[in-house]
Write a structure and sequence with these properties.
3-stranded antiparallel β-sheet; single chain; 2 domains; mainly alpha; two-stranded antiparallel ribbon
């Protein structure tokens, strides 16, 4: 059977990831192909281990190896930039909760992947305190803020996922007296690397509203509705320090 180049490439990828590829039966029957297949799979496993270090700390190296190998067989990379590999790994872990028994593991994985996304984002201008100088209340009411492309935020209402992630990524043991409470997290990429900090429910709601295109006035109202005791000045200061927002835009 003569295959066009595109057909051969697709069949070859299927064969590498142990999916049916009858067109290449003669090739895949060779012992050397198994070596090649194992080498590719090992590269996927190592990429996932590098992208999800906090998860590996929590489950151990062997369990992580087995889980990432199974994930790689089901979901091979579709981008040559392997730091972007594993977008669906948190959902994969969520489906395995009956096996690992860790209700927070998928959310820790989401923060590991958010770190990768923030790290790999492009540089762009960000809002500074000086940009707000001279703005009137009317100006701000009709302005729009949007998060920078390298910013990720999550709210976890079931467990302290941010603290669990932070301790695991740093290799620190979980303190027995640490309260088990809901938490949010903000991660922001910059030339210096990725900075991260806790983020309140109101802060997460505010960024959700900004990303949805609401005006600053409306986004602030939604944030205060979600968290009536929100200190908006403190929130905005934290977002500015994290370089989390693009410069102001106006309707």
């Amino acid at each position: 059977m003569n295959l066009r180049l595109g057909q051969f490439q697709n069949a070859f990828i299927d064969a590498v990831y142990q999916r049916p590829a009858p067109e290449l039966a003669a090739l895949t029957a060779q012992p050397a192909f198994t070596v090649y297949r194992n080498t590719v799979l090992a590269g996927c496993v190592e990429a996932l281990r590098a992208n999800f270090p906090s998860v590996e700390t929590l489950v151990g190296r062997q369990w992580m190896h087995d889980a990432t190998a199974e994930y790689a067989r089901q979901s091979p990379p579709c981008d040559v930039r392997l730091i972007r590999y594993g977008a669906a790994f948190p959902a994969f872990l969520e489906a395995l909760q009956p096996v690992h028994g860790l209700c927070y593991l998928a959310d820790v994985a989401r923060l590991d992947y958010a770190w990768c996304e923030a790290f790999g984002a492009d540089d762009e201008p960000w809002l500074t305190l000086a940009d707000l100088a001279g703005m009137t209340a009317s100006d701000l009411e009709r302005s729009h803020l949007s998060p920078c492309s390298g910013v990720r935020w999550h709210w976890f209402d079931q467990h302290p996922a941010y603290s669990l992630w932070h301790h695991s990524r740093d290799g620190r043991a979980w303190p027995e007296d640490r309260p088990w409470v809901a938490e949010g997290a903000l991660l922001s990429g910059a030339r210096e690397g990725v900075v991260h900090q806790p983020l309140s429910l109101g802060g997460c709601t505010f960024l959700d509203a900004c990303a949805a295109g609401y005006t600053l006035d409306k986004a602030s109202q939604l944030a205060l509705h979600a968290q009536p005791d929100l200190d908006f000045s403190d929130l905005l200061g934290g977002l500015l320090n994290a370089r989390a927002l693009r410069p102001l835009a106006f309707a």
